[in-house]
């Protein structure tokens, strides 16, 4: 994940190979061009993948994901970035989301909005089947029931209260996961992801004041269908980068959607160009768009990515707003920078201690869409 606070961009790799291993935290100073590591404490989340995280002021809110120990998770943690202390929020009120991964979240004011995701259906063991975070499809065997979600949850960070509103469904997205979500003022923008049928390139907007969905009709060249991409708000524009396509290929493109004109733009990208990738992060820091990490090269047999990246690219937000061309620069200072994860070891010596996931999988809560047996996973 990546987020910005106090002129720094904070990063944590989204994958570690060993189940016991905890990914370190880093921050990157875009003004000085330097990396530093961060030591965290408190009630640390157990190792997981495909969780979602959003920033509200100086705090990070992490929800869900997939654990190789117990399956899908529905826990909620908060990280105070002033003290670098984690805390699990177990005293929340209201209806919370069911266990899931590949859910997307975004912040409007003091509230975090969660949409979609993939996980077990009501009444099914979250440990019925597990999978890699970069797998999208797998034969889970007879009897295992999973679902894509189209429900919306809101977490109020001031009252620690969950809300599960019923937005007007007309014009709403299909149930999906591995999509991208960002906030432009008081509206949520959803692009792409995968539903029951295939990867998508549709675009939706939710007005958080009227709670009405709208599928937008756009002009210009629409990006190809994809999942595991990013959507980053830069003023009134949304930047879509990377992702995985219909043939499991990865993209290295930059697409800009103008929310005022409803037009897609494909600016020329100059300078250092990232390799095609997905599962990366992209965030805005001051006057720069910062892109970090990711993975690519899907093995058709295992459906896992074989390449992982720890590189960082920057572009000026004024160029994004102009829409003509984007000059990318790559960070050359590698001192104290994150490294790509090493391959798993059969017999690792003295593995570091990691927090444990719950002894028992959490009971899935109710979902909001009609349930039917799903033959595969996103």
UniProtKB/TrEMBL annotation:
Write the record's keywords in alphabetical order, separated by commas: Kelch repeat, Repeat
UniProt xrefs under InterPro entries: Kelch-typ_b-propeller
Q: Where is the composition biased (Pro residues)?
A: 345-355
Q: Where is this region: Disordered?
A: 331-378
- Top-level lineage group: Eukaryota
Task: Work out whether the entry's keyword set contains RNA-binding.
Answer: no
Instruction: Say if the entry is tagged with keyword Lyase.
Output: no
Please report the name of this protein according to its UniProt entry: Host cell factor 2-like
**Which organism does this sequence originate in?**
Branchiostoma belcheri
